[in-house]
Amino acid sequence: MTGPEIGGTSRRTFISLLGVGAAAAAGGATLTGCSDGGSGSSTTGRAETEDKLSGLLPKYIPYESVKPDLPGENGASPGFSHYPAELKRAVPDKMVPSGKEVSAMTPLWSPIPPLTGNSYFAANNERIGAPVKFNILNGNDYGDKLGPILAAGNIPELLCIPGWNISSLTRFGQAADKLFEDLTPHLAGDKVSAYPMLANLPTRAWAYGVWNSQLKAVPFPSDGFPWALFYRKDLLDQVGAEPPKTADDMLALGKQLTDAKAGRWAFGSVADEMARAFGAPAGWRKDSSGNLVHKIETPEYAESVAFVRGLFQAGYVHPDVVGNSADEKALFEGGKMLIRQDGLGGWNESLQRQLPINPKFNPQPALPFAHDGGTPITWGGDPAGIFTFVKKGVGKERVKELLGVLNYTAAPFGTEEYQLYNYGVEGKHYVKQPSGAPKLTALGQKEVSQTYIFLGGRPTAITQSEYPGYVQSLSAWQNAAAKVREKNLFDGIRVEQPAKMAALNQPFDDALQDILRGRKPLSELKTAVKQWQDNGGNEGRDFYAKVLSDNGR
């Protein structure tokens, strides 16, 4: 992946991929069961421009169910400030005519819903034509579980793998060869027309589903924003505080908001956002001599680490975060910490949980700022960030059925299918508000979860108008952030990083956490960077430099 890589809290940070809050994980696991040779290994890394992959990719056939009233600018997602009066049925036929149960494994970053006797599952499965048997794993631990599962080869028919987990799995290319179906014969070019909702996914997203010159996965398109710095506006308003616009503002807020006796601290995880604010790049950049320099090697990154360490030392960070045992979502939603970074999708998820019990609950994203009040940058990501793979060897007809399931879950906003897999059945799991927006019932709160949504992506959109002001606020934030998004040196190039680089994330992050918390001196950052360089970072630099050279950059 060429988006944001290892960061200050990479295992604890939430990123946004099509409005879904997802925990960034760094596993560094080796797929030992898949390491005995095989062609197309990504051990040494590989890269291809997206246009050279065109022969493998599906033809783009747009499907528009409803027009947005808040167009996205500079790559930001379109916004829909109200729900359509009528929904289109996008998938008229049952996608699994055999009726055979489909096995699937997906992550989830919220409480796991009832897996039996769940009428929300039953309604979706009836439309699909077969029951989907989910193996749902905690998203925070997903990367740790994937390595052993892939090594053993014991995978379900549909397997969802976030890209940040893939980047931390060595020899993933070999695993993809051995375990996952080549979807090229089923989807390339006009063949995708058999699956109209999959044909509606952007071509650039499909390019990131290619491994070893084969289309191996259905992508989950991303808006490209890894996270934002969220603050509790409702609680900051109570003390007359404003969101930060500089690093000095962060320090002042730390002092103003932290009250240990009242059980309230200013900050949760903010290290990645502060690295961005200090001007560190998302991954690689070129120095004045044209040499590649990684984020962690830059003076801006070192400054950000020193700054965040200062927040810890001043006592402004919640003790559970200091102790690496924090459920940051619960602490933030409970008002125990007031500022933290999270994926954009975590916003609407928190509103769904909290507004029924706290109508004043109002988290907002701070506009991107530079540490010194100058022009900020924002980090971008790849056009796709989560992928769904089909088990190899299930047979041609079964592959068609499994792709049919993913065609169902790719139905976009404004369709009956989207409404059903997001909210369940009207009158049972949700009721319509006067605006037309859905509101979950008590049964919906219990049974509805983001499960089907992880079986495949759909075009990015900001849609949750059931929360007053949410669509407008997120649309404004994205449009502002997109204007200052840093240029990606590898834009348009599909890069599979060398295996050695995948194994570097965990050791560096472990050292970084100790430095931030004062368990190691700040001088140890240079040691951690040197170890990163010696253990594969320098080889990675050579690889990425060659990728740029080969592409005339």
TrEMBL record:
InterPro entries recorded: Bact_solute-bd_prot1, TAT_signal
SUPFAM superfamilies: Periplasmic binding protein-like II
Stated family: Belongs to the bacterial solute-binding protein 1 family.
Domain of life: Bacteria
Name recorded for this polypeptide: Extracellular solute-binding protein
